[in-house]
Write a structure and sequence with these properties.
By secondary structure, the protein is mainly beta. It is 12% helix and 53% strand. The chain has one helix and nine strands; from the N terminus they run H-E-E-E-E-E-E-E-E-E. Strands 1, 2, 3, 4, 5, 6, 7, 8 and 9 form a nine-stranded antiparallel beta sheet that branches. A hairpin with a 2-residue loop joins strand 2 and strand 3. The longest helix has 19 residues. The N and C termini lie far apart (37 Å). The N terminus is likely disordered.
């Protein structure tokens, strides 16, 4: 249950940072128009691997497909979660244009036990370390028969 506490803290921090930022929808600036694919640490019931990405489809709108897995494929308690959210990408909230928050929703599929499919909400931030490297962190809330919270922190390569 310790990982659920970490996920709840991460969700709270994401919500607080999003609530503190200006919510004016401005025209897209060049800093939000990038795509990436990356990997990192995923947190669900256990700590595992996260594969994440961002593909810009319109001004300030992206699709962010991802996978979070605890890499336990030998038993019924192993879980892999497939994520397909559509997000609104806010303009940079820092003067240097590197911190870029997002919010969205979509579909989540979990393989834990019997496969579950449900809607999800997501939120997080990208931080442009360089023109080619982005750090990212996000929290996902999926609604199956029960509510599941997971998240990831990683690095991506932009293209």
């Amino acid at each position: 249950m310790k990982t659920r506490s970490i996920a709840a803290i991460a969700l709270g921090l994401t919500a607080a940072s999003l609530a503190a930022m200006p919510m004016a929808a401005n025209a897209q600036d060049a800093s939000t128009d990038y795509n990436y694919v990356g990997a990192g640490v995923g947190i669900s019931d256990d700590i595992g691997l996260s594969i994440n990405s961002k593909v810009t489809v319109a001004d300030n709108i992206s699709v962010r497909p991802g996978v979070i897995s605890d890499l336990d494929f030998n038993g019924d308690d192993g879980e892999t979660v497939f994520l397909l959210p559509v997000t609104y990408d806010f303009n940079a909230v820092t003067d240097n244009g590197r911190l870029l928050p997002y919010l969205g929703g979509g579909l989540s599929v979990s393989t834990e036990g019997s496969t579950s499919v449900g809607p999800m909400l997501t939120g997080g931030v990208d931080y442009r370390i360089t023109d080619r490297i982005v750090a990212n962190g996000g929290v996902n809330v999926s609604f199956y028969d029960t509510t599941q919270v997971n998240g990831s922190v990683g690095l991506g390569y932009t293209f």
